[in-house]
Design brief:
The complex is a heterodimer of chains A (about 80) and B (about 150). Chain A has about 80 residues and is an alpha+beta fold. Chain A contains 3 helices and 4 strands. In chain A, strands 1-4-2-3 form a 4-stranded antiparallel beta sheet, covered by helices on one side. In chain A, a hairpin with a 5-residue loop joins strand 2 and strand 3. In chain A, helix 1 runs antiparallel to helix 3. Chain B has a single domain, classed as Glucose Permease (Domain IIA) (Distorted Sandwich), CATH 2.70.70.10. Chain B is about 5% helix and about 40% strand. Chain B is globular.
């Protein structure tokens, strides 16, 4: 299982454009991808409903996880989106 | 099949006319948008279910079948930090379709230099799942589109 912990930098948190871009990127993966708040229960990173309901605010940490061929590269890409200001 | 109701009265303009590519390119999901009447209004729940997320400027209601609908009150209104919006329900509340959720004034949002256009989006839905989109004018609580 590959994992990244990143701090969400966008002023609006993981909402609107960052959320949509994040979910669209995760949805390309043929394997499961999850997102959780630090210490929280993971939800599907491929679901815009789940990600919006998670309500990650600016400065909060998230843990993104995936397992499969290309998981490391995908997580790098997702981490970049989540940490972009 | 879920009938999604118009959260506010106004003209149905379609997502493509929303001045924000996140919505106009359907990045969030398929649906439509309403150019609201310019007077103080109460935005209502588009479907019956649970309010899983309630911000002053946006809310998500999830039906018992798991379908979630996002209502966004104006564009870039997150930056108003709730000013001019009054919550009429609470996160976690069960609501009936048509029940008031947020009171706001589209004219005030527009006067502040922002678009008051309201995207109404079917979350996690494929593009072809949304149909029978209303045309012309709608009142709050009128059928806006169907989600198969």
């Amino acid at each position: 299982m590959a994992e990244r912990t990143v701090s969400v930098a966008s002023e609006v948190g993981l909402h609107a454009r960052p959320a949509a871009t994040f979910v669209q990127t995760a949805a390309k993966a043929p394997f499961d991808v999850t997102i959780a708040k630090a210490g929280g229960a993971p939800v599907s990173a491929k679901s815009i409903l789940s990600v919006l309901a998670l309500d990650v605010r600016q400065g909060e940490s998230i843990v993104i996880s995936a397992e499969g061929e290309g998981a490391e590269e995908l997580l790098d890409e997702l981490a970049k989106i989540a940490s972009a200001p | 099949m879920t009938t999604v109701l118009a959260p506010v009265a106004g003209a149905v303009i379609g997502l493509a006319a929303v001045p924000d590519p996140v919505f106009s390119q359907a990045m969030v999901g398929p649906g439509t948008a309403i150019d609201p009447v310019r007077r103080p209004v109460e935005a209502v729940a588009p479907i019956s279910g649970t309010i899983v997320k309630l911000h002053p400027h946006a809310y998500v209601v999830v039906g018992d079948d798991g379908k979630g609908v996002l209502v966004h009150l104006g564009i870039d209104t997150v930056r108003l930090k709730g000013e001019g919006f009054r919550l009429l329900a609470a996160e976690g509340d069960r609501v009936r379709a048509g029940q008031p959720v947020v009171a706001w004034d589209p004219a005030a949002v527009e006067a502040g230099g922002r678009s008051p256009v309201c995207p109404v989006v079917a979350l996690d839905a494929p593009a072809d799942a949304v149909g029978k989109i209303a045309e012309g004018g709608v009142d709050a609580g009128d059928a806006l589109f169907e989600w198969s």
